[in-house]
Amino acid sequence: MRDTVLEAVDLTISFNDGAVTAVKGAKFRIERGESYGLIGESGCGKSTILRAVAGLNTDYDGSILFEGRELPERRRKEHFRAMQMVFQDPYGSLHPRKMVQAVLAEPVRLMGLGDEQRRIDEVLRNVGLGPEFRFRYPHELSGGQRQRIAIARALIVEPKVLLLDEPTSALDVSVQAEILNLLTRLRRELGLTYLMVSHDIAVIAHMCDRVAIMQHGRILEEITAPDVRAGRVAEDYTREFLAASAPAITA
Amino acid sequence: MTDPVLTVENLNIHFHGSARTTHAVRGVSFTLGHEKLGIVGESGSGKSQTGRAIMRLSPPSARITADALRFGRTNLLAASEKQMRAIRGSEIAMILQDPKFSLNPLMTVGKQIAEAYRTHHRVSKAEAKERALAMLESVHIRDPKRVYDILPHEVSGGMGQRIMIAMMLIPEPKLIIADEPTSALDVTVRRQVLSVLDELVDRTGASLIFISHDLNLVADFCDRVLVMYAGRVMEDLPARDLGRANHPYTRALLESLPRLDQPRAELPVIRRDDTWRTGALA
Q: Torsions phi, psi of A10, nearest 5?
């Protein structure tokens, strides 16, 4: 039995009164518990799709379905609660003058969930930080700790889907490994579904079950992670992209 | 034996803040010949500060000491600011990460390149323009005449970085320091920019210091690699041997990368060893 959480049908997104079409007829289906990747170069439309799914931009044609129902133009609270976004740059996405505690309490209050203190402690533990981090400001945290807080902020409202926009591309490789491990564990333990955007094919192949390759606003093809590893691709562009990303070090 | 292009012996950089002093670069030594040397490390490893100290472009709060910091026969520590101005650009050039921030947004691309040439060579404007056009062509810009007259915001990231390379290489420097020159670029564009840089470095016979956090890129592009951690050089080895590195830090760094050829459930996390910071170096 298929249990589709998120589906896009003929999703087309334009800007400037149709002068620029950033996404053209994108189509994908993501099952519950799956991790789905969008990959491509700058300007290919991958982040635009993510923003439309998150409800940050609802001016699109076609439709996005969540648990089988089309998302309305005016999203309701429960939609925002169900789908939370983690942004690329933890330096830019946390308010510099808010303590971790305030950052985490805000979404709880917005969603009217109550039980703030317990939720904050629990979510901090979940992302591998102690309760003492409540009283820190972003400038007192390392890049990796900030990204953990950004993930905690998304998790605290108990979402079903995490929308991950290049969650590790601003981090060092050693910190990247920690954050990717954390995301892997959270998906397994909390039964989350991921829609992840990246330009790093190795990261996507590590994290995702299936990957859509995008170019000029279109999804060129959809392949599985084993296909990526084996180089089993249909499109020339995908082959070129894989070749350009191939690592030089073979140990 | 010919003199090395650059000699660095026991370079130390301290930053004096109001509350504490940071020892950012700690006893770094290496010599550079006619080669492409990669310096890899994580944020805060001191790789960029090492590059800046060579150009004497460290921030005012930095205190730099070294047993030797020589460019050819010139002692860079003792050189006057006037001597340094003559060296910067014409003898040692620096390519930075993002062309969006390092090109003058109000000046056409061609004029900036021609200006770079005229600053260091006494030639007429017409001749400088000729040279700039030729340089644009040699960084594989298809229509140099058109590109000469456009402004930086009208070019893509990859083209912007090729323009930067043209501008930095037109005075024919002997040493080029490239600090993360392709991290702001897409993977497919990255290759193209690197091959342009490679071609020009080979043709002009310049030496290159390539600073990056990307191990794969450095292994692919350089002849030799210094691996830095906490301000120190952990390992100095030929780039082709990076996959067989000995130092536990280098090994751990390589292991922590997700790999296409080996699927893994979990990525190994670096367990940092205090002796890397303090212990004797091999």
A: 45, 45
